[in-house]
Amino acid sequence: MNSEQINKAIRALGERDATMLRLIELCEPYAVRPRRDRFARLIKAIVGQQLATTAASAINKRVTSFFGGSPTPDALIAASDEDLRALGVSKAKIAAMKDLASKVVSGEPPLSALGRKSDAEIVEALTRVRGVGPWTAQMFLIFTLARPDVLPTTDLGVRKAIRDNYRFADLPTPKQIESLAARRKWAPYRSIASWYLWRSLELERRERGRKIAKVSDTF
């Protein structure tokens, strides 16, 4: 999507959904653009599986430091499991990372050609990799290929943000999220709606931090 298309998408979401409009006005502008470092982004997504954002970021920084930059498939294959474990990467994720590296070296999945495939075809290709499920494939679609209409219904951050902003008593189920997105007419911009939901959590964390700082200043 170019800048004009992104602006059109943001306007459409704001016009259709008052809650989304509030998040758009509170958050910084949508800033996702296609990335060329596809292997590195997939490795980061694998590391981040089932981890809080801060923990995933810390481990990814150690991985980058260990390899002197983003790891290449050959470098990752050559690295010992012991060294990777020392960086905080679990055994299961090491197996997934190395399986991805081996498959990329052999040309399956063909990362350079994925951009020409449909979202469903990309998910199908990536989930052939050991340890790569639909969530990881969806993160790749949203943050690496910048596909505009992906709804990660199992993502914990999206679920928390919907609970907090749309007044759910509990974390919404995938079906409830799909229903909400349909009622609020997020399609064909569900990736962008998800991005603003994630950003809303960052706003909440910063606000909590300011409140804690103010309380600390009184003692």
Task: Describe the protein's architecture and organization.
- The structure is a single chain.
- The protein is an all-alpha fold and 219 residues long.
- It folds into 2 domains: 3-32 and 153-217, Orthogonal Bundle (Endonuclease Iii, domain 2); 38-143, Endonuclease III, domain 1, CATH 1.10.340.30.
- It contains 12 helices and no strands.
- It has helices spanning 3-16, 18-26, 38-47, 53-67, 73-78, 81-86, 91-106, 119-126, 134-143, 156-165, 174-183, 190-217.
- Helix 3 runs antiparallel to helix 7 and helix 10 crosses helix 12.
- The longest helix has 28 residues, at 190-217.
- The N and C termini lie far apart (50 Å).
- Mean pLDDT is 90; it is low at 211-219.
What are its keywords?
Endonuclease III, domain 1; Endonuclease Iii, domain 2; 219 residues; mainly alpha; 0% strand; 2 domains
Briefly summarize what is shown.
The protein has 219 residues and is mainly alpha-helical. The protein is 65% helix and 0% strand.
Strand residue content: under 5%
Q: Report the average pLDDT across residues.
A: 90
CATH architecture descriptor text of the largest domain:
Orthogonal Bundle
Which sheet architecture does the biggest sheet show?
none
**Beta strand count:** 0
Low-confidence spans: pLDDT under 50, at least 5 residues? 211-219
User: How many helical elements?
Assistant: 12
What is the CATH homologous superfamily assignment of the largest domain?
Answer: Hypothetical protein, domain 2
CATH class of the largest domain: Mainly Alpha
Q: What portion of residues is helical?
A: 55-70%
Distance between the first and last residues' Cα: 50 Å
> Gyration radius, to the nearest Å?
19 Å
When the domains are counted, the total is: 2
Helix and strand content put the structural class at: mainly alpha
CATH topology of the largest domain: Endonuclease III, domain 1
What is the overall silhouette? globular
